[in-house]
Amino acid sequence: MTKQFLEQLETPALLLDEARMDRNIERMRRQARRLGVSFRPHVKTNKSIEVTRRIMESPQGPITVSTLREADYFAAHGVTDILYAVCIAPNKLDHVMRLQDQGVRLTLILDSIEAARMLAERAKADQRHFDVLIEIDSDGHRSGVNPDSGDLLEIAQFLEGAGIPVQGILTHAGSSYDCTSTDAICAMAEQERAAAVHAAQRLRAAGIACPVVSVGSTPTALFAEQLEGVTEVRAGVFVFFDLVMAGLNVCRVDDIALSVLATVIGHQREKGWTILDAGWMAMSRDRGTARQPVDQGYGLVCDLDGRPLDDLILVGANQEHGIMAHRSGKIEGALHLPVGAQVRIVPNHACPTAAQYEHYKVLGAGHEITATWQRFSGW
Questions:
Q1: Among 16, 89, 162, 215, who pairs with 120 as Cys (CB 3.0-4.6 Å)?
Q2: In DSSP terms, which residues pair with 192 in a beta bridge?
């Protein structure tokens, strides 16, 4: 087989640095072992069986998904223990039951009595068993039931009375992405843990077994000091990391395994601009670093070895054009690479950047492409 190298790729192309990825995975594995919890990786970022096989505890799972299409894909590759971590809607239950018929144990989540009633109606009408977790709100970030609210017990008691045993509770400390220090992330991890354990204890006091206590985000999973009372942790972007994670000091820039290969196609020298063939369609519109101390624009520009290049970032992006310039805005002395030169752009947010591509070009040593791994997107 003829070897392929970075310089031969048509751009833009999605690159995955295998060595960095493997280091990131091992870091999370060590942390889960230290904390004494099982690990249920979230696969919404990678959407690739080749990547997911490296992080699962067994070929059957467990994993976490955000879409039923993800569940379909991984079920087709033999994964049978899947948590669908978005509150269930009635128009998805036919799809859920098709997955069950394929031998998948698909755990659902909900956070309202309306959803509980809907689920109970379908369970009775179709003579089905559903595995259910109740989502709780541990940080005011998004969805979930307040762990101290009467709603928690009302939902759980209704489900149990309808013959749907409550498997446990789940929470996601999404506000960890807004923390301004690692001390704050540690505090958020403890807040997440305490809220989840408190909710589980309330259910148990009401006679509901609640065997599963599931928490997780990449920052809190990596910075939790202890997880007493928690049974499993979920995290996803840790596999690749990104500039938002680096801005939180969760990782270093040279831990980021995902980048976009782009080519210089022109210049606006009077503006200090170099034009690349990677715009927001290649990088996404995510500007998650804009609220952090260091704004990385639409992405940090690196050389082909993945090293940041002369403090250059994508300062602007059109659909297919990226504008590379010095982050200070300087014009005199700005680096202008020649047309045809290649760079690697590190993304702000790995998930939406990866979503633009059908495959990863897996990067080995010496700029060599060692494999092409398929990925998918959509719902």
A1: 162
A2: none
